[in-house]
Amino acid sequence: MITDYSERLIVQEVAPRDGLQIEPKWVETADKIALIDQLSLAGFSRIEAGSFVSPKAIPALRDGDEVFRGIRRQAGVIYVALIPNLKGAQRALEAGADELNLVMSASQTHNRANMRMRCEQSLAAFGDVVALARGTTLSLNGSIATTFGCPFEGPISEDRVLQIVDAYLELGMQGISLADTTGMANPRQVHRLVQRVLSRVPAAALTLHFHNTRGIGLSNVLAAYEAGARRFDASLGGLGGCPFAPGASGNICTEDLVNLCEEMGIQTGIDLPHLLKLSRQLPDLLGHEMPGQVAKAGRNSDLHPAPTNLPG
Ligand code: COA
Ligand code: ZN
């Protein structure tokens, strides 16, 4: 298959959710709202703005209700909320989320660590969420965590992932995300699985969620794009990680991804200078350096003055 690089790549920004959920420092509600409001001006069509999970499980995002109520919504931006169960869906609906991201792991062990329940219990809870969403304008996306490998169980079979894709579609979910929770995916694996999933769902309904835990994140994006995927999660600064997965680290970095796309001529519609400005504010907000690289190195077009002592 010859890749058409003129096809737009859609980036869903997940720093307010995946990014902040693992941060040890409390981020004030007003600062979360300000971050989301700034991200809303960067050209994203989708922002995962928070989660509605147990405040004991993820204390950093316990103010999701106030955050969703406080943001200044931009037309054309879909504000997504991650939820694990019916209670989360009810909270998200009341707070005004546009879309629910329902998460379960392909691996039984990671689901028990992350969601404190077995996969069957998660799926049963999702049935209740689907019933709640019926008759509302909420759209539903089903995420499969540990799709490409589990830090407890190791490899995950493709058939297991496809089974869950089918279960999500049967439940009536409009979107599917394949998540590489701890950066275990490799480009060949990604290419193969994306092709198989795209025989079941259109590219407009499939999102890839990569973490850069082993430095393979952007390679996986290209492999997925070349296999036909067009939607990707990424996090400003490269923040992120699941607190219930040992060794977890940041998502692929949004500005690094957008820079890659610009250099290759793939349209994203995202304002890279604006993103870089936002990313460079994160160390002050969070008290540590970011893993993202373009914010430190600058863009290719950020040239330096030539040394003055060059030989003739
Ligand atoms: N929002 C807020 N509170 C919730 C909640 C939700 N979505 N779901 C459950 N709770 C509360 C219950 O009301 C109960 O409160 P109480 O102790 O004051 O009575 C408490 O949490 C325990 O409820 P229970 O149903 O027994 O949950 P649990 O302890 O078995 O945990 C989850 C299950 C799914 C709620 C929890 O594991 C969780 O939130 N996991 C999400 C982890 C996460 O976000 N990971 C990263 C993203 S993938
Ligand atoms: Zn993640």
Number of helices: 13
Q: Report the CATH architecture.
A: Alpha-Beta Barrel
Strand order of the largest sheet: 1-2-3-4-5-6-7-8
Overall outline: globular
Q: How many domains make up the 3D coordinates?
A: 1
Bound molecules: coenzyme A, zinc ion
Main sheet, how many strands, which sense, barrel? Answer: 8 strands, parallel, barrel
CATH T-level fold name: TIM Barrel
Question: What is the CATH superfamily classification?
Answer: Aldolase class I
Helix/strand/pairing class, anyone? alpha/beta
Portion in helices: 25-40%
Mean pLDDT: 98
Low-pLDDT segments, ≥5 res: none
How do the helices and strands follow one another from N- to C-terminus? EHHEHEHEHHEHEHEHEHHHH
Question: What labels would you give this structure?
Answer:
alpha/beta, 312 residues, 14% strand, binds coenzyme A, eight-stranded parallel beta barrel, binds zinc ion, TIM Barrel, 13 helices
